[in-house]
Amino acid sequence: MQAPIPFMSFDHMHGPIREELIKKFTDVLDSGRFILGPEVSAFEAAFAKYCGCRFGIGVSSGLAALEVSLQALDIGPGDEVIVPANTYIATIMAVMSTGAKPVLAEPYKDTYNLDPSRVAEAITSQTKAIIPVHLYGQVCDMGAIMHLAHDTKLLVIEDNAQSQGATFNGQPTGSFGDFSATSFYPGKNLGALGDAGAVTTNQPALAEKAALIRNYGSPKKYYNSILGKNARLDELQAALLGIKLPYLDGWNKIRQGIAKQYDHLLKDVGDLVLPAVHPQATHVYHQYVVRTAHRQALIDHCTSKDIGTLIHYPVPPHLQDACKSLGYRKGDFPITEEIAETCLSLPVYPGLQEDEVAYIAKMIRAFFEEMP
Ligand SMILES: *Cc1c(COP(=O)(O)O)cnc(C)c1O
Question: What is the distance between the alpha carbons of residues 209 and 32, in angstroms, rounded to a whole number?
Answer without folding.
Answer: 27
